[in-house]
Amino acid sequence: MTANSLSSKSKDELLREIRKLEARLNDFLKEEASLIESIKKFMQVLRDACERIDRITDMEQLKALRLEIAQALNTVLKGEGEAQHERSHLLESYGALNLALEKVFNDK
């Protein structure tokens, strides 16, 4: 194999890793945006709960309010998990991109 073909192969790998990083960044940004919306909704549920708590007159209303808060928090936690998952893909891409760069530089 010639130096040019090896260099071309390394450059192709580098370009593939750049595209992969771009796609992963977009996925991460979508999850982060979704998480932010979940947090905002959770804060609103908490604000509403603060206003409603004094008007609660029976255990069923209290149970319903607690469930509503728990569901909103669950949505936030799931969103956080998804964002962390996408963040881990970014870390993988950084490493793969670094390795691809080294291969291109070593071919020179």
Number of strands: 0
The overall pLDDT, averaged over residues, is: 93
> Can you tell me the CATH architecture?
Orthogonal Bundle
The number of domains is 1
Backbone CA Rg: 24 Å
Number of helices: 2
- Shape category: rod-shaped
Overall structural class, as computed from helix and strand content, comes to mainly alpha
Residue runs with pLDDT of under 50 for 5 or more positions: none
**Residues in helices, as a percent range:** over 70%
User: Regarding CATH, which class?
Assistant: Mainly Alpha
- CATH names the topology as Helix Hairpins
**Which H/E pattern describes the elements?**
HH
Percent of sequence in beta strands: under 5%
| Termini separation | 15 Å
Main sheet record? none
Give a description of the structure.
The chain is an all-alpha fold and 108 residues long. The chain has a single domain, classed as Helix Hairpins. Helices cover 92% and strands 0% of the residues. It has helices at 3-52, 59-107. The longest helix has 50 residues, at 3-52. The model has no long low-confidence stretch (mean pLDDT 93).
